[in-house]
Amino acid sequence: MSVVESKDCMKRGRGEGGGVSARDIALLTERSRDTVGRIVAPPPPPTKLKCPGPPATLTVRETRRLVREASEGPAKAPAPD
Are 19 and 36 contacting, i.e. CB atoms less than 8 angstroms apart? Predict the structure, then answer.
């Protein structure tokens, strides 16, 4: 199918305000339909929202370690005199 024929395909069967299919765009640009779809589609929403506020002082690993050491038994700090 030539470019001229593909332009005719774009006119046929489309009502006013009708869009252009990814297949027609792919034929005109000589790109795959998947590539056209990725470019035309809106970007996906972010998967992870940023936490508000300043970053944590302790990492998750340091927090687990601190809790584990605190729950092991008596305090290891010297008793006040």
Answer: no
Nearest to 28 by CA among 1, 46, 54, 50: 1
What does the domain layout of the chain look like in residue ranges?
3-40
Rg for the chain, CA atoms, rounded: 31
Q: Report yes or no: 8 and 20 within 8 Å, Cβ to Cβ.
A: no
pTM value?
Answer: 0.36
CA torsion sign, 11 to 16 to 17 to 21?
Answer: negative
CB 20 within 8 A of CB 10: yes
**Angle 71-67-76 (CA atoms, 0-180°, nearest 5)?**
55
Low-confidence ranges of the chain (pLDDT < 70): 1-18, 75-81
